Give the backbone structure.
Amino acid sequence: MKIRLAFRPVPLLAALALSAAAVMIGNLQRDRAEQKQGAYDRIESARHRAPIQIGTSPVDAALLDQRPVAARGHWLIEKTILIDNRTHNGVAGYHIVTPLRIEGAHISVLVNRGWVAAPRLRSELPRLPAPAEAPVEVKGIARLPLEKTFELAPDRATGVVWQHLSLERFRAWSGLVLQPVILLQTDPVEDGLVRDWLPAESGALKHWGFALLWYLAAAAAVVAAIIFSVERRKHEA
């Protein structure tokens, strides 16, 4: 009795197609990892530069995005709003946003002063720390506002609790002239607010892991193609 090998093209083609698809998805994950790492490196590099002073003239928002900035002026406490549904370490709370009127001008910049935990009862508002009344120098990170955000209850934005922050809506609500950026305050002010803006890592490692899994799946498909494309048949001499 002899063993004769017979070639089967259908399993081979199917396994090779699966391998090619796995490689393609792996490449996408690799590209996503490189993009995230590159963006993170650019942000970290920009944050170590000297802060740019926000003055009385409108700034170029795109150039200031993720850059360290500083502004000097007076807090407009009466125009403070709370951004709802913000969590920190799994605890629900609010972001406190207060405009800072630039000294010597009629233009202001919105400052996200930090996070505060929400009271037990949703009908209550947290006790907000009062910032200094004298002219202050505020330092932070400039961010572009997210103007297009889906809201379940947009009518809530008529009060001090908003679902998200929109510069256009804030201009209409407050009557203020605003700079086209939002300042995430990083000053070490002892007011009990949490200012955890800086990401700990780029998030690229997760995508590298996914890419590795897909490449291993592609290799396994190639091995399976070799094994199952050959059929062993017994042949009687």
Remarks:
- The chain has two domains: 2-43+203-235, 49-185.
